[in-house]
Amino acid sequence: MTNRIAFQGELGAYSHEACRTARPDMEALPCRTFEDVIEAVRANEADLAMLPVENSTYGRVADIHHLLPESGLRIIDEAFVRVHISLLAVPGTRLDQVTDAMSHTVLLGQCRGFLRDHGIRAQTGADTAGSAKEVAARGNPSLAALAAPLAGEIYGLERLADRIEDRQNNTTRFLIMSRRPDVSRRSERMLTSFVFRVRNIPAALYKAMGGFATNGVNMTKLESYMVDGVFTATQFYADIEGHPEDANVARALEELGYFTSSLDVLGVYPADPLRETQRQAAFAD
């Protein structure tokens, strides 16, 4: 055991924050790419991988669904992290001194209102924590970074403004992955994730999904994506509520098997408590 959890990005990135929140007892290992994160676990340099899969504002994280089934790793947990954005500057800087703010282009798009109201120009950086690191290195009070508060702590920057994101419910979902599956745990709300390809028969997807409806299994996600670089080869990624050992889930998966050419369960794991909180808030609206 290395007691390490690998993530993509610089120290202070939102993925690093997810590691500290979900596994505070583990050492966070920064990696350059998602592929490097997966390889760190496969090579026993880390025990777990923290991988972002979707954002409530911007949707699916590019390429991640291609990597999950090919990784050989298994999902053992999910973690929801609220994206709180701070304006970070070198110590002693006043807000009215800032003329430019640097960050990843996605984060810049989440703070348009604040930047417009304060007459601050957006500058595109490689990533959020990397932008904070560069602002600290330049030492120029006119240039600030948009990043997580954690990045300010790590790189010695002051927080001039907090929670400046346009959407206050912006959340990123992460999957925690391991070399070995863990299907032994039980909680009130379990999730099962899997990928499958349907057989080449008429209405195969419709028939495959029918088993979940007739057995009362709630499917929380279904996404398709091309494989092997051709339009005719489609793979589906799905999340359902329940455990494969639950009678209704077992029946639904068995029926799914009749209409698929391949089926691979990626993980069985407890739902993050924030998932239910957000669902209740949605129903309240």
From TrEMBL:
GO function term, MF aspect, one: prephenate dehydratase activity
Keyword Amino-acid biosynthesis: yes
Keyword Flavoprotein: no
EC number(s) stated in the UniProt entry for this protein: 4.2.1.51
Enzyme class, broadest EC rank: lyase
Positions marked as site (Essential for prephenate dehydratase activity): 172
GO CC term, one of those recorded: cytoplasm
Protein name, per record: prephenate dehydratase
Source organism (scientific name): Paracoccus liaowanqingii
Lineage of the species this protein comes from: Bacteria, Pseudomonadati, Pseudomonadota, Alphaproteobacteria, Rhodobacterales
